[in-house]
Fold this sequence. Notes:
There is one protein chain. By secondary structure, the chain is an alpha/beta fold. The protein has a domain at 441-546: ANL, C-terminal domain (GMP Synthetase, Chain A, domain 3). The chain is 30% helix and 27% strand. The strands form six sheets. It has a ten-stranded mixed beta sheet, sandwiched between helices. Strands 5-4-6-7-8 form a five-stranded parallel beta sheet. Strands 18, 19, 21, 22 and 23 form a five-stranded antiparallel beta sheet that branches. The longest helix has 22 residues, at 525-546. The N and C termini lie far apart (72 Å).
Amino acid sequence: MILTDLLVRNAELYGDDMALVELNPVHDDAKNLSWQEYELVETGHASHYRRELTWREFEARANQFAHLLADKGVRRGDKVAILLMNCIDWLPIYFGILKSGAVAVPLNFRYTSEEIAYCLELSDATTLIFGPEFLERVGSVKHELTRIEEYIFVGMDIPDYADSFEGLIGSYPETLPKIRIAEDDDGAIYFSSGTTGFPKAILHTQESLMSAAVTEQTHHGQTKEDVFLLIPPLYHTGAKMHWFGSLMSGGKAVILKGTSPKWVLEAAAGERATIVWLLVPWAQDILDAIERGEAELDKLDLSRWRLMHIGAQPVPPSLIKRWKKHFPHHLYDTNYGLSESIGPGSVHLGVENIHKVGAIGKAGYRWRTRIVDENGRETKRGDVGELIVAGPGVMKEYYNDPAATAAALKDGWLYTGDMAKEDEDGFIYLVDRKKDVIITGGENIYPVQIEDFMRKNDKIKDIAVIGIADHRLGEIAVAIVELKEGAKATVAEIDAFAQELPRYKRPRKIIFDKVPRNPTGKIEKPKLRRKYNAEEIVARETEASQS
Length: 547
């Protein structure tokens, strides 16, 4: 069975039931909505623009797009790129690509023009589907995109070099394309987060995509009655693979175009959401809004919300303790995964293990894990080593990069680059990214451990600990601290709080600044290292010139 078979089944079994809802809250950008007709809905709490698709309409639209691509000359194995903001057409387009036998290539909507060109070239994409938000970026590098043969535009004011998605799709049949697709066929290319440079192209097979759906539904037990509130970007494996649980069960998903606490809580109440997947910053923002009195929970019916889960980055235990204080009835879960392991699920905490909050869990359904030293030998329990995983969702390869593939895939195991350790019960705790470890005076410092401790300070909203070059110690730990809205603190105050840490783990320098995170919630530490190492060099040169 492959992923598109699930869509066919849902259309047959639940044809008139709602599959997808798009909510676009009324705000300053409402005038920039794409040209499609939306229904303006007024509720007791909010106003929003709304679109809906039933399972039958979803299947029909995906089939039409597959026929459209075939008519454009797209064949099995061709690469078709998607550069769209989250919208109700995103998933039908994705499934249309899969149904055509082509390989779907989702692109990060934050990519610069240079990164768009790089990823299209690296993936060998020949067709690009894009929206109005990317007109300028695509237009500025179009002359470099020599491989792109077809441009399909989703929106109004279509550029003269592109065809209209909506103008074409209605003329194609809604019937299932007669294209045989096998489990071992290439299915999709995802890109690494690029936090260490230009992203790598991660190739997954159809079998890998299907395994993500099975793993997700097994872990969270989605049923037909569940409603999934989908907020993270669909180009990323995380949001999509969690939605695969709704695909498996035939449940409704609500795509919310906005991340403010007000919108999340009102959408969860209005749509009767049962499952919400959040990133750490969004959960933090919701709690802050509640504690500032800006979110009136007593006026919202959130009684159906049963599960809040978080992924994509280490989760501070203090955050979950705060969450349970306000939402004591919620089940909590976290998942660990990489785009190389088809997103979340290769390691899974489980709702029954909230007493282990802080851990990422144990091997997920049909997955295996090991923690190894630099020679690939398994470490003793409690010792820090590199986490490696094996299972049905491991990537086929880094596309067009055999050297990187050989470094990451060894004897069927994926080397994650994440440092971890196991406790006495076999639960895995992330220690840090291998590349983020700070070596100061010969001691290894794991920034995540410091960050988890410092987040216990009620004034700290976010924190990133990085290494800055030091002529004596090699590196020193520097804490970039972002305070909560309205909070005030001095360097001396934060430094005093850190005194409870062992001496070698205490940050040598405290800097107040915003902590940058990418769309999947990961701290962009390379950006901070570049910024503050450069400032340190300038400071030293200035000091030397004045001495």
